[in-house]
Amino acid sequence: MSGVLIAGLGNVFLGDDGFGVEVAQRMRARPLPAGVHVEDFGIRGIDLTYALLDGVDAAILVDATQRGGPPGSLYVIEPQPESETQPSALLFSPHEMDPGKVLRVVNLLGGACERIVLVGCEPESFGTEAEQEGRIGLSEPVAAAVDKAIELIESMLAHALQANNMPSNRRVIEI
Description:
Layout: E1 4-9, H1 19-28, E2 36-42, H2 45-53, E3 58-64, E4 74-77, H3 99-108, E5 115-121, H4 140-163, E6 173-174
Helix pairs in contact: 1-4, 2-3
């Protein structure tokens, strides 16, 4: 696969952790530019690893991201893959999604994905509090951020396609 991959990440059974999945599902129903692919990876880190190793030019990962802002805040982050020398630190379950670990494995295996950007949303709750154990569905502020995230991603795609590359900010941008 070449082009741009938009990857929805998260666990729909843990409240706001389903943010990336919701964004991916809604984006799949929208018209996309040629060469842009949207996938809901959920908690399948191995599948995301293979997708990033499969000749993707750029990727936009979408996930719930705790950075200390108000719930529903959006962030654009360009992750820097850390090098890892201990093979045991790179092993993960087929039902585990750790984007940092995925990027370290892709880097170690020589992945050629030129640009990887994370669009993150500050969660309100992962549904793990005693009174909300296993809550399905997004909180109100995070649900309200889904359409804003889609607009942001579409804007990034338009900019990238015009400039023929993904924006390079090397910092966190709060939206």
